What we know:
By secondary structure, the chain is mainly α. It has 11 helices and 4 strands, in the order ααααβββααααβααα. The chain has one domain: ABC transporter involved in vitamin B12 uptake, BtuC, CATH 1.10.3470. The radius of gyration is 19 Å and the shape is globular. 45% of the residues are buried.
Amino acid sequence: MVLQSLINGITIGGIYALIALGFVLIYKASKVLNFAQGELVMMGGFMCLALSGFLPIWMAVVLAVIISAFIGFLIEKVVLKPLIGEPILSVIMVTLGIAYMLRGLVLAVWGPDIRAFPQIFPEGAFEVNGVVIPYVYLGGLLLSLMAIIAFILFFTRTTIGVAMRAVADDQQAAMSLGISVEKIFAISWAISAVVAAIGGILVGNIYGGINVNFAFIGLKVFAVVILGGLDSVLGAIVGGIIIGVAESVGGTYLEPFVGGGFKDVFPLLLMLLIMAIKPYGLFGTERIERV
C-alpha cells in the first residue's frame, strides 16, 4: 500500500512539477507571480476536450498545446506588455484579472458540470510485486518526465534558453548585449502556457473528467514553487514531487482519521512547516537587503 501511494504521488507530483516550471520561468524572467497559471491548466484541458470531438485524440493534444502557446504569447503582448515599467504589484493584479476572465469564459462555454475527458492511454493496469500500476499513471509519469527533460534541455542548451537565463539574472546587462527583453517575456509566457496545457491534459486523463474547478490546481502549484523556491527550476521539480507524495500519502493514511479533504490540506501544512525552517524555500535564492 505504501509503494502504491508513492507511485501515485510521484505521478501527480511530476505533473505538478511540470506546471510549476512555467510559473518559475515567468518569475525568473520578469519577477511576476503568475496567478493565472491554474486557469491556463484548465484552458489547456478544455481545449483538448473540445478538439477531441472532431479530431483524433493525439492530434487534439498537439493542437491544444499549440493554441495554448499562442494564448500565452497573446496575453503577454496585448495585456502585459503595456505594463512594462509599472509597479510589479500592478502586473500581479492583472494576472489575477486574467485568471477570473479565463474562468468566466470556461463557465460561459462549457458550464460548471464535470465533463468526461477522452482517454489518451489504454485502459487497464499491470502488476509488479503486488503493486497495481494503471497505464494512465505510467503514461502520465513518462510524458511529464519527458516534458521536464525537454524543458531543462531547452533552458540550458539553446540560444533562446541562454538568453532567458541572462534576462533572469540581469535585465539591464542582457539588453546591453542585444537581447530583446520584450521578446523573452513573450516566449516565457508562451512556454508557461504550453507546460500548463500539457499538465491539464495529463491530469484530466488521470481523473477521467474535467470542470472549472481544475483551476484550483494553481493553488497547489503555488505551494510547489513556494516550497521549492520561486526562482529555482530544481526546486520546482523537487517541490512538485514532495507535494504530490504528501497529497497521496495524506489521502491514503490520514484522511480516514481526520475527515475528507485532508489530502488537499496536508501538503500545505507540510509547506508551512518547511517554510518555517527555510523561508526562501528549499532551493530559493536568499536575498539580504542592507539599509
